[in-house]
# Entry
Amino acid sequence: MAWTVQPSATMQIPRRSEPYVTAEMQARWTEIILPRYETRLGSLMPILHDVQHAYGWIPAQAMEEIAAFLEINASQVFDCTSFYEEYHTHPVGEHVIAICQSIACEACGHQAIIDHVRGRLDIEPHETTSDGKFTLMALECLGACDTAPCALVNDDRHDNLTIDAIDRIIDGLSS
Ligand code: FES
# Structure
């Protein structure tokens, strides 16, 4: 994985008039998520997941709104979303195929699977097909090293992955 430097201090944040963090979300977070954690900052990751489930990704404006809700700095939210690749900071395709590239999966042939998907979908990791159907990602360890190689396809983990298996998954999502 390559670290990329982003000019976050000077970045322009696209804005819309309607907030991403709705009153309904705030009420639900206050009732269900905040009480689970000792600090408001502790709620950040589940709240980010909630926003991503709602919109498919986490716009920068939403990160600022989350920071305001949690009474933390926006930079803390940006730090979290930019560290974990599972958080999408840009729009992604209808289906996200995220193949583990960490050591156990690497030893068990993840590269052949990534290369196959790259060729089949004609995209590189972190790109989306022109029809908006698929995004390919390469992630770090998914915590299933004993069943490597594996991938996260949308919200489902697929273990002991083979090229035939990933083809069947893509076929199923294509129809
Ligand atoms: S290295 Fe792939 S799941 Fe751990």
Notes: The domain at 95-174 is CATH 3.40.30.10 (Glutaredoxin). The mean pLDDT is 94. The first helix runs from residue 23 to 33. The chain has two domains: 23-83, 95-174.
